[in-house]
Amino acid sequence: MTPHVDSSPSSQLRSSRGGPEAGAAVKAADRAHVFHSWSAQGLIDPLAVAGAEGSYFWDYDGNRYLDFTSGLVFTNIGYQHPTVVAAIQEQAAKMTTFAPAFAVEARSEAARLIAERTPGDLDKIFFTNGGAEAVENAVRMARLHTGRHKVMAAYRSYHGATSTAINLTGDPRRWASDNGTSGTVHFWAPFLYRSAFYARTEAEECARALQHLEDTIAFEGPATIAAIVLETIPGTAGIMTPPPGYLAGVREICDRYGIVFVLDEVMAGFGRTGKWFASEHFDVVPDLMTFAKGVNSGYVPLGGVAISAEIAETFSTRPYPGGLTYSGHPLACAAAVATLQVMDEERVVENAAHIGETVIAPGLRELAERHPSIGEIRGTGMFWALDLVKDRETREPLVPYNAAGAANAPMAAFGAACKKNGLWPFINMNRTHVVPPCNVTEAEAKEGLAALDVALSVADEHTTAA
Fold this sequence. Notes:
Elements: E1 4-5, H1 9-15, H2 20-33, E2 49-53, E3 56-59, E4 63-67, H3 70-73, H4 82-94, H5 105-117, E5 124-128, H6 131-146, E6 150-154, H7 163-168, E7 184-187, H8 202-220, E8 225-231, H9 246-257, E9 260-264, E10 288-291, E11 303-307, H10 309-314, H11 330-345, H12 348-370, E12 374-380, E13 383-391, E14 396-397, H13 409-420, E15 423-424, E16 426-428, E17 431-434, H14 442-460
Parallel strand pairs: 4-15, 6-7, 6-8, 8-9, 9-10
Antiparallel strand pairs: 1-4, 2-3, 3-4, 5-11, 10-11, 12-13, 13-14, 13-17, 16-17
Helix pairs in contact: 4-11, 5-11, 8-9, 12-14, 13-14
């Protein structure tokens, strides 16, 4: 099979604006001038993208791909939703930009709509340009609120690439920038499939993970710890849904020691898990919640911190020493307002839950029955991971931790097979994630699963069962 070639009239109109020569020019300019993130610049070959719509994007040769990555897990309503595009255009004609110290309609309305959806009393919204800056400011707020400096975060996590956020991160992207002086302390969060606690059940994993956290706090000194920062459901690190009782247990520990509880919902928020926020699955309300990505489907960069009444009160008469030139940018906020309205009107959150439960979950279970490379499937809504292994009995990952080059060949072959069959996959280490737009249709979801089925046969060739 080959990537689908879109021959519709609209595709022909789009392709008339460019073709292989235009694609080559785009690629040449990119290679000459664009410095890409997380990459060895001379070893990458980025695809030149001609356009995108809904759950698909296409290149200048007319090859169309079903996007099972949602960009970087942010196009929760897909690409080019006409309502949001129109809202951005309307806002641009009305007021393209304005400084953050003023009350602006789009900014005020976006904050109101976000606060309506956040749990508990998280009713004040501090806007940032993205998720990493949201984490930076949440930590700053926690430190100033408590008068403490240390911040705790889990291994197998990702919180962003800025200074504090990268030090909180618990994956190899931290290593090059970890200066050991930022006051961060890492601990093991629960993950039964690869338990650090030799647990056999979710209950054991939960109890032992909470005891480990409390022991770490005791040895670090409770009075030195400002915040615990957790992804509600870790995203890039593997979509490990915490066991029942874990987040409630962390909440209780934070309350007991006066520690600020920060939930990072940058990836899991705004419908991704089949709820507005993943915290709703666990009936837990943090003191601070970070968000970005799905708040406006990434159409214009926007993130933020939702702030509890108690922490907001800390800065009632005391200035908050932080801000950004583009905080609450009118174009970004207009996109957020339109996105949230679209999600309500088109029942996008409900769709994510429904397709996840009725199509994705059973489809992945069916794949696991046929493919020995699948060690575990886990997730909810439009937020799933397949843990690929060499051996199901030993659970040895299909490739080593942080593999590159020849060591990563099995996952590279799997990824190439996905693309050959018109599916753009989200791959991290030994996992592939199933994270299509939250408004994906049943037919699109099944199309993606069928392409995964073919590609997983390639992964199977690298298992002990082969």
